[in-house]
Amino acid sequence: MSLPASVSGVLGNTSLDRFDALIVGSGAGGSAAAHVLAAAGWKVLVLEAGVNPFPGLDHSGHIPWPLFSNDEIKNALRHFVYQDPLLEPRTFRQSESETAQAHPDVNILTRNVGGAAVISGVAYPRFTPVDFRMASALSAAGRNYPGTSFADWPLSYEELEPFYTEAECLSGVAGDTTGEDDNPFAPPRSRPLPLPPQPPMYVARVLAHGAKQLGYHPYNLESAINTQPYDGRSPCVSCGFCSGYGCPRNAKGSPAVTTLRRALLTGNCQLRYHAHVSRLVRDGSGRRVVSVEYIDDNGQMQSAAADHVILAASPIESARICWLSGITDAGGHLGRHMMFHFQTTGVGIFKQRLHGERGRSVTHVISDFRGVKAGGAELRSDWPHLAGVVEFGTSSQPIIAARESLRPEAVGFARLFNVSFKQLLVESPFHAHIAVLIMQGEDAPQPANRVDLDPTVRDVFGLPVPRLTYRNHAFELNASEFYKPKMLELLEAAGAAYGFFQPFDPAVPPASRHILGGLRMGTSPADSVCDRFGKFHDLDNLYCADGGVFVTGSGYNPTLTIIALALRLAGALVSPGSPEHVLGCASAAG
After folding, report:
1. Nearest to residue 286, comparing CAs of 536, 23, 22?
2. Cβ pair 272, 46 in contact under 8 A
């Protein structure tokens, strides 16, 4: 065994040259699957298109510090780990009749070892029981939405619950499930969370006070951020840079430092980064993938093979790889039913400073606007719209906010009130005095919302780029309008002097990074691409382990559900008929 790797562009055991499984993508789903398979003795190859900000991730002992920092210029302006839209563009249109146009941000995610969760706020709530049977619940309530494709998932919350528990243990999720800030809308659970809750940010306290006055239920958001030493990683120091930044001290329980690291340390896993997958090659029958072609860091075409191939490149890229490989499905669902959480962003301006630079970006939320009853098993009848969790946030980026002070209207405002530019920067009205409510509203699945290949635009490798066709449905637009006055009322109750909403422009791609659907799971090839575990109906050894398999989107952050589903898929491969036998973290924790 050659570990840690001394080969450029490789992590893990470099001596492996024969693989049982090949995983495309090292994000939340891919890393979770790699962990289960490698722990069971399978030889696993992971191909990652992005860079590696975790040098020495395969070193045993203390985890080396990553290449992340709180450098706003490096991360937010120079896009340290983001996909470059000039080299790898995407196109967008609202309907089939339009010619799609290249846009710099068609829901691009970061390209790095560990995937996009590495720079996220690692909010890890569970979905609730009704989320897995939404079509039945809507039908029973007499709510019909023409043009949508709501369907029940081919599994229940109860079936996935043990895998949620395992995912929380592996990631080190912190939260309050038994105390004063308990969430009445949370689903039942078999075990408490492994870590105590995050200390509340000041802005969270201010907004929670307003929410409680109106009868809502603010609670400590479940997050994979260490509140005490856990799994060999340091606790968080509340530096304020969580969302949009990688953690410089590995306090975030992101896939890189949890499941992927576990897989690498088994000696059964090899990860090649800067490996851009371009095609899946099938045998003569068309039912088996026999090799995977990818372009390496030197621009050379390479090939790798394994008995099983798992797509976990994110929904848009996984669907694109299928299209590039000539893969279709009998039901015609490939690439369709794309979903993004519809974000409604309300901004309150306060006279007091709110200290967004101290904390975890988001520590508290409410789920009152999800539109379900306590326990999450049934829909509310008094509020007819389904939205989602509302995050209590603010600004934690002083340099980015200071740039806003250079805008002509800001300078003009300062002159009007005889405020010097220096005083404007010190007061920082666009940073220090704002509170933000972000509602992650459920997005209705629609067959017309889809990803395919653009017929004219190519990327730097000469490959057709993804084309997103997407238009919002009245389902989420009406929900947003219904809850907007309530969000404004909450800001006012919390003490905001002014409030407004971020404008919505349907002509630009959705801003959400919660990308779901395109390879939806189901019980039949007639209504889905993958089966109830994530295996492609029409292929014998191809699987999906990212958000592409989602049937509906819920109103909660999806990463924990992606991990739970990937653990279940890998468990089914290792232990057919009893995938729960692979669960070990939660059992060992007692």
Report:
1. 536
2. yes
